[in-house]
Each structure stands twice: as structure tokens, then as C-alpha cells.
Specification:
Low-confidence stretches: none
Distance between the termini: 41 Å
Order of helices and strands: EHHEHEEEHEHEHEHEE
Number of helices: 7
Mean pLDDT: 90
Helix content: 25-40%
Strand content: 25-35%
Radius of gyration: 18 Å
Shape: globular
């Protein structure tokens, strides 16, 4: 019974959301949309889960792209600043890692190192099951368009038929396969990112002042 749902948790695929927000900003003429207030964003979609839904937990999964500092020295500094703001709003941040692997350029044959985000999908899948096992939520919304999470969604629905598994697709990342594995699926409109931005500057509870990075 969807109408009996109350406690709702959101699990956010950080890079999926980041690149979506960047694309939404470009589509809006270059407007900065990456300084997201994810708690506010998640709250705005609770009504699609249930008329009685309340926000129970928000988990943000990502990794620090330290390998990019060679050409973008402040990349992790900006990311850490935003993460600090998210944590201050109650978001539980879970960081994975990037791992380099040898590869060959398909055009010139030059050897190079490609970096891939590791462990994030597994971490999201584990948290989904952890929340249901501990009965901390009646519904979990996976905010991602990554189809690698389809098996986790199917497993969660099989093991916990009384719970709700939903997908919130970031702008530009709707996925039909994922939609078919869920009880509920919806897409976040690009304009919603601009509506749910953190204050600039963001003043944390401990008094620390964090300004919005340029171009965010």
C-alpha cells in the first residue's frame, strides 16, 4: 500500500547527479546549478513516493577526483567544500575512490592511464539492503540513472516485498531498464536544480563560512 509509506530514504549517486546538474546548467544558458541543496531537492519529490512520506535519511556517494588536480588544482577543494555543506544539512556522505588502469588510445595508440570510480555502486547497493534489514525506512529512492544498480533493486524488492524501491532519474539520465525494476520511477527536471540551491555563502552550524565556487 503506497499510501501507508512514511519513512523515505534517498541514496544519491554523486557523479551521476553532478554531471546532470552541469548539463542542466548549460541547457539553461550557463546558469550555475551545481551548488545543490540535496535535502531540499529530495524533500520536493517526497509526494511522488506517498502523500504521507517524510524524509528519513539522505546518503551521498562519491569519490574525490585527486587525479584531476594536475590540470585542475582546486577540483577536490571545491568538492570538499560542497560536501561540508551537505554534511551540515544532515546528509550522510560516503566516499569511495578512483582507481587507475592502463589503457591504449584508440586513435594514436599511445599508452595512458584511465581512472574509474570504484566501489560506489556496491556501496549504494549495500546501503539499500542495510536500510531495509534495519527497518529504518519504508521506501528507498535511488537517485541515479546507472543501470548497474538494477540487480540491487530487483533483489531488494524480492527480499522486502512490503517495502518500496524507487528510482529518481537525474536530468538527462532516464533509464527504461531501471524503471521496470522499481515500484516507482520519476525524472528530475533540469529547472529543479536551480530551485534547490544552497545559500551563497553557506554558513555552517559551527560558524564556518563557505562561499559558492566560481561557475557553480
Amino acid at each position: 500500500d503506497f499510501f501507508a509509506v512514511s519513512r523515505t530514504a534517498f541514496l544519491i549517486d554523486g557523479f551521476n547527479l553532478y554531471y546532470s546538474a552541469r548539463e542542466a546548467g548549460k541547457a539553461a544558458g550557463g546558469r550555475g546549478t551545481k551548488w545543490l541543496d540535496v535535502v531540499s531537492l529530495c524533500q520536493s519529490y517526497l509526494y511522488l513516493v506517498s502523500p504521507t512520506a517524510i524524509l528519513a535519511e539522505v546518503h551521498y556517494f562519491s569519490a574525490l577526483a585527486t587525479h584531476r588536480e594536475a590540470w585542475d588544482p582546486h577540483v577536490t577543494e571545491r568538492h570538499r567544500a560542497w560536501i561540508a555543506c551537505l554534511s551540515d544539512t544532515g546528509v550522510q556522505v560516503e566516499l569511495a575512490r578512483f582507481k587507475g588502469r592502463a589503457a591504449e588510445c584508440g586513435q594514436c595508440g599511445r599508452r595512458l592511464t584511465r581512472f574509474e570510480e570504484k566501489e560506489t555502486d556496491v556501496a549504494i547497493a549495500c546501503r539499500l539492503l542495510d536500510i531495509f534489514v534495519a527497518d529504518r525506512a519504508d521506501a528507498v529512492v535511488l537517485l541515479t540513472g546507472d543501470k548497474d544498480l538494477a540487480p540491487a533493486a530487483r533483489m531488494a524488492r524480492r527480499l522486502f516485498p512490503e517495502k518500496i524501491v524507487a528510482f529518481a532519474f537525474p536530468y538527462g539520465r532516464k533509464n527504461g531498464e531501471l524503471a521496470r525494476t522499481a515500484d516507482i520511477a520519476f525524472t528530475i527536471g533540469g529547472a529543479q536544480y536551480a530551485k534547490h540551491q544552497l545559500p551563497d555563502p553557506c554558513v555552517l552550524k559551527n560558524g564556518r563560512v563557505i562561499p559558492k565556487p566560481a561557475a557553480w
